Amino acid sequence: MSAARVAICGAGFGGLAAARAFGERLSRLPPVGEVLLIDKENYHLFQPLLYQVATAGLSGPDIAIPIRSILRRYPQITVRMDRIIGFDLEKQNVMLESSSVGYDYLVLSLGAVTSYFGRANWDQYAAGLKTLSDAHQIRGQLLLAFEQAERTEDPVRREELLTVVVIGGGPTGVELAGAIADLTRHVLRRDFRHIDPTKARILLIEAGPRLLAQFPEKLGRIAEYRLKALGVEVRLSSPVQDLGNRSVILAAETVRSANILWSAGIIPHPLTATLPAPRDRSGRLLVLPDLSLPGYPNAFAIGDMVSIPGVPAIAPAAMQMGRHVASLITGELSAGVIPPEKRPVFRYRDKGMMATIGRSTAVVWIGKAAFNGLAAWLAWLAIHLVFLIGFRNKVIVLFQWTWSYLTYGRGARIILRSEAARSPTRHKASTSSSADG
Amino acid sequence: MSAARVAICGAGFGGLAAARAFGERLSRLPPVGEVLLIDKENYHLFQPLLYQVATAGLSGPDIAIPIRSILRRYPQITVRMDRIIGFDLEKQNVMLESSSVGYDYLVLSLGAVTSYFGRANWDQYAAGLKTLSDAHQIRGQLLLAFEQAERTEDPVRREELLTVVVIGGGPTGVELAGAIADLTRHVLRRDFRHIDPTKARILLIEAGPRLLAQFPEKLGRIAEYRLKALGVEVRLSSPVQDLGNRSVILAAETVRSANILWSAGIIPHPLTATLPAPRDRSGRLLVLPDLSLPGYPNAFAIGDMVSIPGVPAIAPAAMQMGRHVASLITGELSAGVIPPEKRPVFRYRDKGMMATIGRSTAVVWIGKAAFNGLAAWLAWLAIHLVFLIGFRNKVIVLFQWTWSYLTYGRGARIILRSEAARSPTRHKASTSSSADG
């Protein structure tokens, strides 16, 4: 009998944790299985630091690690860069753009994408932050807005350019608003002659009554207080009524802004809806306690595309699910198939949640403990460095952080043409493909 | 009397050296002049290391430094990010896309762009390497070719994907071919399952009888020998007859390749031809000995857009010209106007030329001394670190080099969507804007 094939779809936190666990376990077994990891990108993205790429603190390659180099030492693992277009769970096939591959076990870890709640065109007006390309676009848009404000003679236009609106008061929105405040208050402070970047208006807009809804209320209040101290205008209980070109319409006011950023919602990857499996209201898969899909004992789903009561949509949960599934499947490969109801049940071990607010504070919530301030910030730094993959990346990120902290500088303050080209607020001058000056 | 305005057009090596020299000199004078530096990018690009971005050794931001932060400490200097569309030397105006600005003195430092010798469509088939966007495109294209080769079943297509052709045997072509050889021989060696990257074919094609035509013949021969030792096929006296989609047509053979890179020629920036000034056969401006344009004593041109016998088109020459012009103009601002024929004459001080060949050798030519090998390579590293602007950038580049040398790794092995999108050899799977896997 030839070795069984496990197909892992997606190399985010869940898929990559599964692949590494397979690699470790399979290397200690006779050749019972081989793993194929499929992703449309050639890199694993460390999403928790994505907001720092968007605000010019880190370069893309600092947090994007080639999947092949991470998994190079596991001979049982093959990596394939390809786009997944569908699944046939009956025939046990994954359809790829260039061909299709069969599997014996399937691990679905497709993650989530930005959701605009089904509102047409909102994606044209507000930039999401889920991919490296998103982060580069936001970076280009923000930096270009200051350049344009510096050269415009029109005061109305200048105010629009110097207004940043972040929609969504969860961890991403809070971290983004804090980092943008640091950028305008410190980094860009002395660089312009006609505008004062420290006067830039930054709004954080949240539909609910407080920030960081998933955290204890006290931490939400602290985040609000700290952001206000950085000069961010926090609007609570302010659902967005509509978005337009450079405008955010709230019940109480309309804000004109050339920089509208969206961190208000995510939904499971679109392919999730094509699977023959039950889903919750937000479209996430309802899996059995072993993480397999009902009726398909050889197909598992993990991470942000799955709904399990009490398990948050964060990286540690996805990684735990990935390791659970890898352990379960390798067990079956060596000892024989077990029916889903007799398999080990996935149990989430709460490792806490955290968010930074600007350059020297953070909020941390671990089990019963909630803390904030400098200690929380240092804990945030340490944990993100530990979990960032690759020694080279750790060293560079640590150096960039130290440098930024000491000098108020940012290492990646560059506007690339391809970034600006995607921006809805772009200025023709900067996206022309002809070379000059 | 208000302060005179000096407009510097372009923040490459020449324009930036001029701006810094103005900043230093003007800060020691009464307020006699102000400087406006105009560039279409917000960063100064350290072009000598561009080939390392193209081959995934460095990130873009490692060698792209924000112009505003370099010049922040000079209050007399204003930076403007804008696109220059023309000049009116009679009315003393620079026309920008968003407006126009007057000047009392003009410093033209627009640099050069890739030249395909006027052959239509060749830019579609062969990627040039003059801008950061070029480097990102080449990086995406090269890395994607290996991914595509790994998944294709078609042996002809695979061979096309695993063939890299570098056209032009000057310093850029030699450095690029050597770095690509390192990438395929070492970095990617163990990362694939279906292809062997060490078997990739790399060709360096040169129309003339030897490599590095500007260097002494001995160094050209050494570069050829070293490249061959790295597995590069060097074709001398092989002018390109024609380029097509994935094909390079030489007199003796046609090479099929999905990765055609162009480093065979540059021409002065297109706006050079709009100036009312004499030019040489290659379109470069013929300036007076003080670097001013004949008939326009307040307009100067420096760097790669200028033709001066015995002065090579390299960074040190452009920087020397920039400082010469800054000194001359500040002198006039404080002591009064001098006619061009009585002004100090620009004299080039030869600082030598150098090129690396792969990971531990280089060729260096300084005055009468020509040397190569490890000592030349170390000299190359040291000089490039010294001239790279910014302490942060020096530290990061030094770390990346050390890391790459010790581990055979490359820090920026990522394929960005926007990169691949420009590639003529792109695969649909990788440029789709919808998210998956």
TrEMBL record, chains A, B:
Catalytic activity entry: a quinone + NADH + H(+) = a quinol + NAD(+)
Top-rank taxon: Bacteria
The protein's name in its UniProt record: NADH:ubiquinone reductase (non-electrogenic)
The FAD/NAD(P)-binding domain, residue ranges: 5-322
Pfam families from the UniProt entry: Pyr_redox_2 (PF07992)
Transmembrane domains' residue ranges: 369-391
Keyword terms, alphabetized: FAD, Flavoprotein, Membrane, NAD, Oxidoreductase, Transmembrane, Transmembrane helix
EC numbers: 1.6.5.9
Statement: the UniProt record of this protein carries the keyword Transcription: no
Family to which the UniProt record says this protein belongs: Belongs to the NADH dehydrogenase family.
Recorded GO MF terms: NADH dehydrogenase (quinone) (non-electrogenic) activity
PANTHER family named among the record's database cross-references: EXTERNAL NADH-UBIQUINONE OXIDOREDUCTASE 1, MITOCHONDRIAL-RELATED, NADH DEHYDROGENASE
